[in-house]
Automatic annotation (TrEMBL):
Its EC number is 3.2.1.52. SUPFAM superfamilies: (Trans)glycosidases, beta-N-acetylhexosaminidase-like domain. Keywords: Glycosidase, Hydrolase, Signal. CDD domains: GH20_chitobiase-like. Residues 149-515 form the Glycoside hydrolase family 20 catalytic domain. It comes from the Bacteria. Gene3D superfamilies: Chitobiase/beta-hexosaminidase domain 2-like (3.30.379.10), Glycosidases (3.20.20.80). Belongs to the glycosyl hydrolase 20 family. The keyword Hydrolase applies. Residues 1-21 form the signal peptide. This is beta-N-acetylhexosaminidase. It catalyses: Hydrolysis of terminal non-reducing N-acetyl-D-hexosamine residues in N-acetyl-beta-D-hexosaminides. InterPro entries: Beta_hexosaminidase_sua/sub, GH, Glyco_hydro_20_cat, Hex-like_dom2, HEX_bac_N. The lineage of its organism: Bacteria, Pseudomonadati, Bacteroidota, Chitinophagia, Chitinophagales.
């Protein structure tokens, strides 16, 4: 929501801004920007003046200038203040508004709050040259800016493929560059449990390892027979959460339940409705090692080696399942200061529950009319526990089935319908429909690498408006934001993640930050070309399809 001060600035700059917008290479596009005359050169030993609330931003700027340009700066030293960062406190509903002023003599960033100072610094950084040689000059500009949505997220699935701490930090850096403020960390999956839980060491000793994975597109052409493993220790998690916090990014952990639990079940088979029943694996797609373990060691549960959805889910009939998950959450909650815990809730087949006497008994005792109601019971029971610890739940839109848990936020992924229903029921919603937000889909019809399928060109990301016309103005307020999702079945290494993320994240950031009336594809494109130059300079991998298709 725009503050009245920003609105006044926006109106007064409107005409000028439209004439000069293309020269102001800030993405996501700010509320207003007016190019001035001349430039400011940031010289060696430039002074940065700041106060306590903006110290994190000052440190970020200092480190960036040093790392990228070899320019040292003095923070709150004796000399003159070339760059001033400060807060003029405002109580905006959505944090992050700022004013950036660059003249020939001085740079100032004034945030309405700490976040605002940080985003002003990101805009300042975007105006710096995309080369190391020559002067570090910033074109004169007046920018007034504020975000559209409070929740601006990107997700990363580290279950299908594991990514190490350094890459997770690099990913967080990319989110920060585009003023995102939520990193949704998908930590548990059928193909890998990725976070240390001290009470249950086998979750990582067994659940973070697999003996191979399918080759080619699902259902696969065979198995690569390459063992893989990986998890984050709790110390590493704390380090990543602090790294994100220094960039005003909240980390939301996702602990999947009741589906997508094969890795946990491989470690603790009693979580399954049928602990002695063999994990059904497509016969030609299993690694030799798993076949051997099944035959020689009588192992029946395995971390999955293929993709998809599996019937072996957490048993909803045993109290021990809930106790296990509560114990896991008792270790998760202190690691993450976020208000939210994501509990998954998606793609939970009801096959086993229909056959399981304990699940059926639970349904009878609680007068639950079907297995969807049992899923709702499961989520509601976990929500109560999570609420009792002072946290709220987010879940994928399947948590609507059988009745929404009372305080749940819904992540609408199977289109917008779930989000619309939830908003009408006055629940908060994060929009993330596959049609516009699934970055595992191909960048173009001529995709040059294997993807899960689907098509999501950058134009389609850019065109998205997350507040559906079907909602009234009042209901629309329940759409708290929008998120890009990166499911990594077909992203086995960091370069591929970068390829699928960039440049689509730049378009997504504008969906998240910029009001629709201020957005235009024509205006975005010159800035997009600049982003490609930046990626080259920063050594980032990206999808070049836009460049190839728009050569003229
Ligand atoms: C999902 O894509 N299964 C939430
Ligand atoms: Zn059961």
């Amino acid at each position: 929501m725009m503050t009245s001060r920003l609105f006044a600035i926006a109106v007064s700059f409107f005409l000028l801004a439209s004439a000069t917008a293309q020269e102001i290479l800030i993405t996501p596009k700010p509320v207003s920007g007016v190019a001035g005359k001349g430039m400011f050169v940031i010289k060696q030993n430039a002074g940065i003046k700041t106060a306590a609330g903006s110290m994190k931003s000052a440190t970020f700027l200092k480190d960036y200038l040093s790392k990228m340009y070899g320019v040292s700066t003095n923070v709150n030293g004796k000399g003159k203040a070339d760059i001033e960062l400060k807060i003029a406190a405002k109580n905006n509903a959505i944090k992050g508004a700022y004013h950036l002023s660059v003249t020939g003599k001085h740079i100032s960033v004034i945030g309405d709050d700490e976040e605002g100072v940080f985003y002003g610094v990101q805009s300042l950084i975007q105006l710096l040259p995309v080369q190391k040689t020559g002067t570090v000059s910033v074109p004169a500009v007046e920018v007034a800016d504020a975000p559209r949505f409070a929740y601006r997220g990107a997700h990363l699935d580290v279950g299908r493929h594991f990514f190490d701490v350094d890459f997770v930090k690099k990913y967080i850096d990319l989110l920060a560059m585009y003023k995102l403020n939520v990193f949704h960390w998908h930590l548990t999956e059928d193909q890998g449990w990725r976070i240390e839980i001290k009470k249950y060491p086998e979750l990582t000793q067994i659940g973070s390892k697999r003996n191979g994975e399918i080759t080619g597109h699902y259902p696969g052409q065979g198995n690569d027979n390459k063992p893989s493993s990986g998890y984050y220790t709790q110390e590493q998690v704390k380090d990543i959460v602090a790294y994100a916090a220094a960039r005003y990014i909240t980390v939301i952990p996702e602990i999947e339940m009741p589906g997508h639990g094969s890795a946990a079940i491989a470690a603790y088979p009693s979580l399954s409705c049928f602990p002695k029943r063999v994990t059904p694996l497509p016969i030609n797609m299993v690694s030799m090692e798993s076949v051997k373990q099944a035959q020689k060691e009588n192992r029946v549960k395995f971390v999955q080696e293929t993709w998809g959805v599996f019937d072996d889910v957490f048993c909803a009939g045993k109290d021990s399942t809930f106790i296990f998950l509560q114990n896991v959450l008792d270790e998760i909650i202190p690691l993450f200061p976020a208000k939210y815990i994501h509990i998954g809730g998606d793609e939970c087949p009801k096959t086993n529950w229909k056959q399981c006497p304990l699940c059926q008994k639970r349904m009878k005792e609680n007068s639950l009319k079907d297995e969807h109601a049992l899923q709702s019971y499961f989520i509601g029971r976990m929500e109560k526990y999570i609420n009792s610890k002072g946290k709220s739940i987010i879940g994928w839109d399947e948590i609507l089935e059988g009745g929404l848990a009372p305080n749940a936020t819904v992540m609408s992924w199977r289109g917008e319908q779930g989000g619309i229903e939830a908003a009408k029921q006055h629940h908060d919603v994060v929009m993330t429909p596959g049609s516009n937000c699934y970055f595992d889909h191909s960048n173009s019809k001529n995709e040059d690498s294997l993807t899960i399928g689907g098509l999501l060109p950058i134009e389609t990301v850019y065109s998205y408006n997350p507040v559906p016309a079907a909602l009234s103005a009042e209901e629309g307020k329940y759409i708290i934001g929008v998120q890009a999702n990166l499911w990594t079945e077909y992203m086995s290494n960091p370069a591929k993640v970068e390829y699928m993320l960039l440049p689509r994240l730049s378009a997504m950031s504008e969906v998240q930050w910029t009001a629709p009336e201020n957005k235009s594809w024509a205006d975005f494109q010159p800035r997009l070309l600049h982003e490609f130059k930046k990626y080259d300079w920063m050594g980032l991998n990206y999808c070049p399809v836009y460049l190839k298709e728009n050569k003229n």
